[in-house]
Amino acid sequence: MGTRTAGPSLPAELLPLADGRVRVAVVQIDRAGAINAWNEDAEELFGYAAELVIGKPLTDLAAWPHTPGTSTGIVEALQLSRWEGSYGVRGASGRVIPVYASHLRVRDTGGEPSTVCLLVREHERAVLQTPLRGQSPDATNSAEGQALDPFEVFIGSPAPDDLDGLLQRTVERARDMLDADSAFLLLATDDETELEVRASTGLPSARQRFARVPVDAGPGRYGSARMPAVHDDLTAVPGAVPLLSGTGMRSVVTVPLKVEGRLTGSLGVAAESPSRYSNEEALRLQFAADRIALAVESARLGELERLRRGSLSFLVEASDLLAGTLDRDQTLALMAQMTIPTLATWCAVYTIADQASEPYLSYVLHEDEDRIDGVKALLSKIPPPEPIPTPGARVWSAPAQAAHEAALRTSMRSLGLGEPATVSSGIGTTLATASAVGGETVVLPLVARNRVIGMLTLGKPSDEHFRQEILELAEDLSRRAALALDNARLYSERTAISQSLQRSLLPPDLPHIEGVEVEVIYRAAGEGNEVGGDFYDLFPIRDGAYGFAIGDVCGTGPNAAAVTGLARHALRLLAREGLSGPAVLERLNSAILDEGARSRFLTLLYGELWPQEDGSALLKVVCAGHPLPLRLRQDGTVEPAAEPQPLLGVMEDLELYEQTVTLDPGDVLLCVTDGVTERREGTRMLGDDGLTDVLTTCTGLTAGAVAARIMRAVERFASDAPSDDMAILAMRVAGLQKD
């Protein structure tokens, strides 16, 4: 028993200010981060009954002054053995209530850990705040005869080794040194035109991270952060210190942090009462600022170097990922996944189909998957951002405003002040969405080939801001993503055109031939973005006669498609004019040569088929440079059904001839393109012999089964995907059905 620590007796006017009744909220958090205890003072402070919050994560209520990737987050703080500091709690009214908290990690008799959180209003922090330790006599004696480092005297030893820790320690020491209600430290941008809030204490969480104010806020000496300034009463000069607007602070002293004449930042302390500070306090604060300026600048430069190295690695990885796909939906997903959580808490991608179209919400992602639907629903209810092509990020306030309004309506309904809640009671999805979307939101245009094709929208949770380095990285990413998205669009359009053209070059339906089974398998090589050169056709010529063809145009693309279309339609037209097979191909050869530079070589197997009354089928075949058709007899023997002749599109005055073949019932005629016979695995090739061997095993099979077995054999011959188009036409004479 005894006194552990004590302070001097003070006059009443110097004692810390508190409300008539100090309320200390006691909140206990279980291992999973959910609230399992909530006392009456917590209900009074924040407006939620215990049954509305028990079982919910504390993160649903806490407005944590934290950016992902830097310093300590609330999840980490709840795992520490002891933690003390400031943050905000969103009340039932939708407003963030600044609190000072003391966390202690404990365990129950069963060994189960939990965290006990004591919370008071920020201005009553003295109730919980641990007093700063004074220097012990032993330390004083050990320092005799040695010069004390002014930096360590102010900051304490050991000094934090990271920038965020150093800045937070600085504002806390500055506030305590001048017995202030709040303190803040801002760092200057590279061009010294703006100051970015990097640390604060005693201010609402909305003012605490990465908010920006101009260096020169007003006219005169006191309007610039480059000079020390003392303001006795801010109500007399509204806007003199933009950071403190609406905070209740009235007197303030600010001093610059400079290194070799360059503005590094600004340190300030403020009080709620007027006329608290004089030039004497300004000199004391300036002395402290001079002691820490070099350390702050060194830590800042180190952080910037780490950020730049990380940004370079991030952009290299992003470029590789975006270059690895030409699928539009996958590109949209990659854009969002690369930004979350590295750059932002949530992301939305709007796309614009053409100049006459409105922006369309194409993709939404949040680091918490449970929030995605809520964010998407909220964004779908507000007009999209304007597609302005100006480079750089611009602030978009509509999501935060809509979120705050929705949160207020939900809170009023849950408290019985408005229409009853229709979805759920308590905090509900709307409040969670409001917390997720309630911070700063920025829009970056996606510009490719001098056209705005969409917008990349990045957002923070309640009361958080983006730092400039993150926005610059996001701008670099948006340029790469825009080009990747436009490439995916062009590829998709080209693929759709190619597939449509490919379908137009193949017959829509095959005719039914009495007594003859017909099966066709067609496989286009590649990814579907090129028109193949292989084609087939089967069509009636006249009563009882049918023409069939299978061919391969040299090359792919539009020129090959033109020759394919010419060949298929010319074959039908010439055959129906009553010309013989050789005459049809000779005239087609002349038509191809007439194309001049656009002409292509063409291998073609053309034949005419007449089903006979005895169940057989008569064939007349011309094979112009094409793989020979194979005939499979019922006894399993395989033989060519034609002889090779010159291909088309090479020479004029071709003299072709046709050969007559009779297929008996059960015989199969197999016609393929060279993509089948030239299938390779290393130095091996399937070839005509390999195809013959496979066909020999097809005795007794239907035409469909024959074609399927051939295709399986071709696919299994090599492990790689086929590099050439393949077409298989199988015809089996089934014979006439007897009644």
TrEMBL record:
Keywords: Hydrolase. GO terms for molecular function: phosphatase activity. Residues 26-56 form the PAS domain. Pfam families: GAF_2 (PF13185), GAF_3 (PF13492), PAS (PF00989), SpoIIE (PF07228). The keyword Lyase does not apply. It comes from the Bacteria. One of its GO terms (biological process) is regulation of DNA-templated transcription. The keyword Hydrolase applies. PANTHER family: STAGE II SPORULATION PROTEIN E, STAGE II SPORULATION PROTEIN E-RELATED. This is PAS domain-containing protein. It comes from Streptomyces avermitilis. The lineage of its organism: Bacteria, Bacillati, Actinomycetota, Actinomycetes, Kitasatosporales.
